Structure prediction request, 178 residues.
Amino acid sequence: MRRWIHWCLLLLLLAGSAPRLLAQQDQDTLTESEIEQIRENAVHPVDRIKLYMKFIDQRVDDIKKLAADPALTHQKAQLRSKLEEFTRLCDELQDNLDTYDAAHADLRKALKDLAPDSGKWPDVLNRVGTDATYDFSRKTALAASQSVNDEVKQLLAEQDKYFADHKDERGKNGSGPN
Prediction:
């Protein structure tokens, strides 16, 4: 009976710490400076989307550098980490796109820059090569990259149509008619 109680307490302890571990993992995706920049631009959709694009491009540059230098110590683990950061940032970008789109924010300026930029990401991710250490992370990053690119193209077409019909809402940060 005592052993059973100890196991239950251990499970409760582990269950209680899981959310904190997940929160820490998400927090590690962005630096404190990047988090602050994102917060400051919460009401500026175009600037916020461009910030995410900038941060993703920085991760892409890091991935290129790591892939080019296999002699680096812990290169494979670092590559996996950067691929996972890339994926999480793509997910956050898509969450922001969905939120701003639902509010009818005019994102066309950012989307016009994001469409060609996100189209380049799969090429970089494919050049990384395959290795059991990071292959799952690479494939996940590729899927996230393709998903962003597809969403951006679709959203740009939808926004062009929406703002052609609602000229008075052009250039606004959202909260247009539903």
